[in-house]
Amino acid sequence: MWYWILAWLLTIVTVVGNGFVIYLIVSTRSLHTMPNWSVLSLAVADLSVGATVFPLLFALNINNLEGPPIHERVFFLVSRTFAYFSVTNLFVMILDRYVAIVHPLKYLSVIRTRRTIVALAIAWIAPIFVFSLPFAIEIEVKGQFLLLFRVLLFQILPIIIFIFVTVRIFLIMRRISKRRSQIFAQLAFNHVPKPPTAELRSGRENKAAAKMTLAIIFFFVVCYVVENYKCFCIVFKMIETDPALDQLCNLLFVINSAANPIAYAFLKRDIKMTLLKMLTRRKRQTSSAQVGTEASSSGQRNEISSSTL
């Protein structure tokens, strides 16, 4: 029972979190930027993961919640398809952030609107043609080639690339931080005013973008380690997989999709600022409503006192 309580809790967090990110980007004109289109697409993919994995598993197993999936093939097809949508969209977003952080001067020339649209379209189409259709029509491939190819393409290769991106971003941010410290020390020694606020803000934005990218990569790598282990056990027949391992993999898939909107809210600077402005505006509206209510109540009391006199 604890498994289903945790599963539904994660489902709610994933759907609400990613749904709010989608609403925030769509409804806020200042967030209609190139980087946020990949964030929006990833949020849609993550919301789909949250809305399908455990609700579908619950619907298929409603008469046998403690047992293995009754329609295991249907569940595997749907859950892995949406999970791979999340992986491919995450790859596009990480690529966008990598270019912005590592090659900022080339960003506008490399990341263009048409290229972004094509990349996002491929992110949604590739899992269908590489995994979903072959699996659905039961294409027979010698041995475990199809399984191995799928795992390498959607699970192993992204981890290798993301680790490379992590190392590159870490080294570059470390080098930039050291250089900025040296410049500030030299300016202070020469009694020269600090650089303009715009430059400082740009540095903070790059640092925040790097932190968000590293946090999302960390969650992805951790959440997919168990699934990769299970797949290699199947391919190389090392040990038989346990139903508890399948349950853990499903939980980690949804945890990965639930963690991404949290990373946006706390580490993506423009979304964080928009969220803070929204909360501040709501707080002011609540305070104004309370003041108006108190003033109205005070006026009514004064009228009652006057009529009594």
Note the beta-strand portion: under 5%
User: Oligomeric state of the chains?
Assistant: single chain
**N-C termini distance:** 67 Å
Secondary structure: helix percent? over 70%
Query: Main beta sheet, described?
Result: none
Mean pLDDT score:
83
Write the element-wise H/E pattern from the N-terminal end onward: HHHHHHHHH
Q: State the low-pLDDT regions, or none.
A: none
Count every helix, treating DSSP H or I runs of 4 or more residues as helices.
Answer: 9
Main location: membrane
Transmembrane segments: 6-26, 38-62, 74-95, 116-137, 149-171, 214-239, 251-267
GO molecular function: G protein-coupled receptor activity
Region (Disordered): 286-309
Describe this structure in words.
Helices cover 85% and strands 0% of the residues. It has 9 helices and no strands. Helix 2 (34-60) runs antiparallel to helix 8, helix 3 runs antiparallel to helix 5 (113-136) and helix 6 runs antiparallel to helix 7 (197-236). The model has no long low-confidence stretch (mean pLDDT 83). InterPro entries: GPCR_Rhodpsn (IPR000276), GPCR_Rhodpsn_7TM (IPR017452), TAAR (IPR050569). It is a multi-pass membrane protein.
Could you name the key traits of this structure?
single chain; 309 residues; mainly alpha; 9 helices; 85% helix; TAAR; Octopamine receptor beta-2R; GPCR_Rhodpsn; transmembrane
Q: How are the elements arranged and paired?
A:
Layout: H1 2-27, H2 34-60, H3 72-102, H4 107-110, H5 113-136, H6 145-189, H7 197-236, H8 243-267, H9 269-308
Helix pairs in contact: 1-2, 1-8, 2-3, 2-8, 3-5, 3-6, 3-7, 6-7, 7-8, 8-9
